[in-house]
Amino acid sequence: MYWNKEFETMPWPEVQKYWLSKLPAFIDYLKHNSGYYQKRLQSAESVKISSIENMKQFPFLTKSELREAQLNSSREFPLGEIQTAKTEDIVQVISSSGTSGRPVYYGVTSKDVEIWKDAIATLYYTAGIRKNDIVAHTTGVPLFAGGEPYFEGIRNIGAMTVWPGNLSTSRMLETIRNLNCTVIQATASFNLYLAEHCPEALGIDPKELGITKILGGGEPGLGEEAIRQKLKDAWNAETVREIMGLADVMPGMWAECEDESGMHFNAQKYVMVELLDKETGECLPWETGVVGELVYTNFSRSATPVLRYRSADLVRVEGTSCSCGRKSPKIRCIGRVDDLLIFKAMNVYPSAIRDVVLKHFEQFLTGQMQVVKDSAEQVRFDSAIPVDIEVNPAEYDLADLKKKIEKVVRDTLNIRIKAELVPANTIQRTQYKSPLIRIREQ
Ligand SMILES: [Zn+2]
User: Fold this and answer.
1) How far is the CA of 323 from the centre of ligand 1 (A)?
2) Which terminus has fewer CB within 10 Å in the chain: N or C?
């Protein structure tokens, strides 16, 4: 039932104690191997860590700080100041996807790679992958967290791993058919895209391919019931499960079990996670319904470790016990802290808009939609938020549908949107993350 029974079934308070026991040696490692951390940790007087509260003595780390610390790179330290292992000991580099600026690069030593393989296998095992599965792994870019690291994790379970990542959509679908794949691993939007293209590429309905399991992550989406159902129906799949990780910390950390009621944390052995109030920075309890930002410390990584890294991922705790016996909390990702939109005085995330619209009008829509901003920095909207929404090809009264969509959003979220109904396949699909936000071309 479990890949790592000891940690997966360990009560959460004990997991937290285990983390605290690991921290002193980790802090010591940072201070001795990194001038960058030496400076940052100066103000942390003592390294007494007897409770999670003591974590406050350590400053948060953000993506932009990491990016900046990497600008001073050299042949000796190709990863810049965040590199805490010798270059000769680093065996591989991955990068963030660069959707929010210059990508940040992270290294791994051969020991770090072994840890990855184990942690990511734990995630995929939780998500239901077994040795007898034939897994189509579709990420096109090996350098991304969802590329080579995921491949290693799936292969570590012993599943037959097929990686047609860089092929065209048609060739990818051919490969899936030729090899009788049972699982598709892709982002939610790419998975829908594959299903849409199946009739054209293979001349058959995707249901005929016999896919039983759909796995995906990398963007909010699979947590939304309407999108899960759309995928399940499109492929006639038995299960649709969400997974999540971060290049900056550990490529895979969260996965849904057979209960399909939120993602469990699966990287207890190697990564510490805190739930934080994004405004005050205070620790929040892991209790059902609590919403907070995830903050990570990967105390086991030696090449590019992070201490209290603010992920900017905003999640809601869905539960703290589960029928599967795993003891870690379950979460759903609500969105990125930086995706927040403000309409008059109301805060809203693009994923919430999509959730509401799909819940009521799923049968008319492809599932693709995008909020349109005037600039990357725009957060505030004084008039209705423009949203492009793709409709299925059929004869609808579009003016009436537009009105109904705008009304439901207004009634449910207390914000106004200006729905722009566009034909299917107008919104650009990407193989990795399909953003929920688009910047208007000037
Ligand atoms: Zn479970």
Assistant:
1) 6
2) C
Kindly indicate whether the domain formed by 112-338 is annotated with CATH number 3.40.50.12780.
yes
CA of 319 to the centre of ligand 1 (A): 9
Ligand 1 geometric centre to CA of 256 (Å): 7
Separation of alpha carbons 245 and 154, rounded Å? 14
Average pLDDT, the chain: 92
| Ligand 1 center from residue 68 Cα (angstroms) | 39
Q: What is the pLDDT of residues 209-255, one digit of tens each?
A: 999 999 988 666 788 888 899 899 999 999 999 999 999 999 999 99
- Interatomic CA distance for residues 68 and 64, integer angstroms: 6
**How remote is the CA of residue 257 from the centroid of ligand 1, in Å?**
5
Distances, alpha carbon 322 to alpha carbons 23, 334, 388, in Å: 28, 21, 38
127 Cα–ligand 1 center, Å: 10
The dihedrals phi and psi of 404, each to the nearest 5 degrees, come to -65, -40
User: Which amino acid makes up residue 175?
Assistant: T
3-class SS letters over 260-298: CCCEEECCCCCCEEEEECCCCCCECCCCCCCEEEEEEEC
pLDDT of residue 49: 84
Confidence at 12, pLDDT banded by 50, 70, 90: very high
**How many angstroms separate the alpha carbon of residue 128 from the centre of ligand 1?**
11
Give the distance (Å) from ligand 1 centre to CA of residue 325.
6
Q: What is the pTM of this model?
A: 0.86
d(CA 220, CA 433): 9
Rounded to the nearest angstrom, the distance between the alpha carbon of 172 and the centre of ligand 1 is 32
> In 3D, which of 171, 163, 221 has the Cα closest to residue 192?
221
Nearest CA among 431, 416, 422 for reference residue 370: 422
- Domain-by-domain residue ranges, the chain? 112-338, 340-439
pLDDT-derived band at 431 (thresholds 50, 70, 90) equals: low
What's 340-439's CATH class?
alpha beta
